Amino acid sequence: MNVFSDPRVVTRLTRDTVALVMAGGRGSRLRQLTSGRSKPAVPFGGKFRIIDFALSNCVNSGIRRIGVLTQYKSLSLLQHLQQGWSFMRGPFGEFVELLPAEQRSELSSWYAGTADAVYQNLDFIRTHQPAYVLILAGDHIYKMDYGAMLAHHVESGAEVTVGCLEVPLEEAREFGVMAIEPDTRITAFTEKPAAPQPIPGRPDVALASMGIYVFNALFLLDWLYRDAGTDNSTHDFGRDVIPAAIGAARVCAYPFRDLYEPGKQGYWRDVGTVDAFWRANLELTEVVPELNLYDDRWPIWTRFEPSPPAKFILGGADGSGVAADSLVSGGCVVAGAAVRRSVLFTRARVEPGSTIEQSLLLPDAHVGRGCRIVRAIIDEGCRVPDGLAIGVDAEADRRLFHRTDSGVTLVTREMLENLGG
């Protein structure tokens, strides 16, 4: 029997691991959604923040020593982590520790790349003396058992293991693309190639990095020192550290699999554009969505908010006060309005006579009377005035808001405030 199938062995591995979550990204492709917050702090799925998925994967996998590296506009992220992730038990060696970027000397600066971000926090690693370091991106939506990845890492004898998934070849330009041997050893790795190499025998698919790495801790420290002393390095794992390590050490791939169907690739979404963010949220309204938020075996942990139950009030000309094929979070009020295939985040409110279709109302959004909202994202705290139509007139949407080429309209408080001007 494979010793790494023994849960006790995997538990020892996870207990001897420290996770570092990279949460400093600006997420500029999300446009105005990240004008005042970092991408990991963007709300998702009605009541969560994007970073909750990586953190929940850690906790559910048994990895409870976690550092979160922050940088860009981190106030809302820090507040969320302080208020929502303080349940870890310090006396038992559990923690989520905040590691904001800081200038530590006259020569230091903000994080130059992902490898530099970890290099500037080597003291954190040394303090906790793990055998393994798990490095994660904090801006993707997925469920993953990191314990299985750690077991694969140790069993394969790797110094570095890279989480990977199959992506359509035309999308692979946005990823690190790798070639592997039958034993999963990586033989080539190119970050965001102009002409990605497909998987042999599958010309329309490439093997891409998820931005998830397991390192033997001592190996990581050694290679970060090497990278820091390399003048022409961009100090990035995908561009510099991983490609260099392939020729000098054993670097392996870990294929990402579904939690309950090992023969199937797991659900994973990069919600880095307005369209992708809108689409991933709307997918949750399907009868059987790929991402199961109702899975008690693998819960998504987040900040607890003492919101009252959602409320539906009859009223208006047609007596509507309904939501169909929708997610409606705590504290929401739908008063004489109709909501269809939409996601209403915590404390969103819709007034009489309004219709909401294929749209996202982020926390505390308020839609006035007689509005029509179609294929739109209404940002946190927005107050949509009575009678306004959004997602109906493409030309007006482009002039007043941000409308994507596929017809999704993003509305923020600043845009609404400018309507009066």
From TrEMBL:
<keyword id="KW-0320">Glycogen biosynthesis</keyword>
<dbReference type="GO" id="GO:0005524">
    <property type="term" value="F:ATP binding"/>
</dbReference>
<dbReference type="InterPro" id="IPR023049">
    <property type="entry name" value="GlgC_bac"/>
</dbReference>
<dbReference type="InterPro" id="IPR005835">
    <property type="entry name" value="NTP_transferase_dom"/>
</dbReference>
<keyword id="KW-0119">Carbohydrate metabolism</keyword>
<keyword id="KW-0321">Glycogen metabolism</keyword>
<dbReference type="InterPro" id="IPR011004">
    <property type="entry name" value="Trimer_LpxA-like_sf"/>
</dbReference>
<dbReference type="InterPro" id="IPR056818">
    <property type="entry name" value="GlmU/GlgC-like_hexapep"/>
</dbReference>
<feature type="domain" description="Nucleotidyl transferase">
    <location>
        <begin position="19"/>
        <end position="285"/>
    </location>
</feature>
<feature type="binding site">
    <location>
        <position position="209"/>
    </location>
    <ligand>
        <name>alpha-D-glucose 1-phosphate</name>
    </ligand>
</feature>
<keyword id="KW-0547">Nucleotide-binding</keyword>
<feature type="site" description="Could play a key role in the communication between the regulatory and the substrate sites">
    <location>
        <position position="71"/>
    </location>
</feature>
<dbReference type="Pfam" id="PF00483">
    <property type="entry name" value="NTP_transferase"/>
</dbReference>
<comment type="similarity">
    <text>Belongs to the bacterial/plant glucose-1-phosphate adenylyltransferase family.</text>
</comment>
<feature type="binding site">
    <location>
        <position position="111"/>
    </location>
    <ligand>
        <name>alpha-D-glucose 1-phosphate</name>
    </ligand>
</feature>
<keyword id="KW-0808">Transferase</keyword>
<dbReference type="Pfam" id="PF24894">
    <property type="entry name" value="Hexapep_GlmU"/>
</dbReference>
<feature type="domain" description="Glucose-1-phosphate adenylyltransferase/Bifunctional protein GlmU-like C-terminal hexapeptide">
    <location>
        <begin position="308"/>
        <end position="411"/>
    </location>
</feature>
<comment type="pathway">
    <text>Glycan biosynthesis; glycogen biosynthesis.</text>
</comment>
<keyword id="KW-0067">ATP-binding</keyword>
<feature type="binding site">
    <location>
        <position position="176"/>
    </location>
    <ligand>
        <name>alpha-D-glucose 1-phosphate</name>
    </ligand>
</feature>
<keyword id="KW-0548">Nucleotidyltransferase</keyword>
<feature type="site" description="Could play a key role in the communication between the regulatory and the substrate sites">
    <location>
        <position position="110"/>
    </location>
</feature>
<comment type="function">
    <text>Involved in the biosynthesis of ADP-glucose, a building block required for the elongation reactions to produce glycogen. Catalyzes the reaction between ATP and alpha-D-glucose 1-phosphate (G1P) to produce pyrophosphate and ADP-Glc.</text>
</comment>
<dbReference type="GO" id="GO:0008878">
    <property type="term" value="F:glucose-1-phosphate adenylyltransferase activity"/>
</dbReference>
<dbReference type="InterPro" id="IPR029044">
    <property type="entry name" value="Nucleotide-diphossugar_trans"/>
</dbReference>
<comment type="subunit">
    <text>Homotetramer.</text>
</comment>
<dbReference type="GO" id="GO:0005978">
    <property type="term" value="P:glycogen biosynthetic process"/>
</dbReference>
<protein>
    <recommendedName>
        <fullName>Glucose-1-phosphate adenylyltransferase</fullName>
        <ecNumber>2.7.7.27</ecNumber>
    </recommendedName>
</protein>
<feature type="binding site">
    <location>
        <begin position="191"/>
        <end position="192"/>
    </location>
    <ligand>
        <name>alpha-D-glucose 1-phosphate</name>
    </ligand>
</feature>
<dbReference type="InterPro" id="IPR005836">
    <property type="entry name" value="ADP_Glu_pyroP_CS"/>
</dbReference>
<dbReference type="InterPro" id="IPR011831">
    <property type="entry name" value="ADP-Glc_PPase"/>
</dbReference>
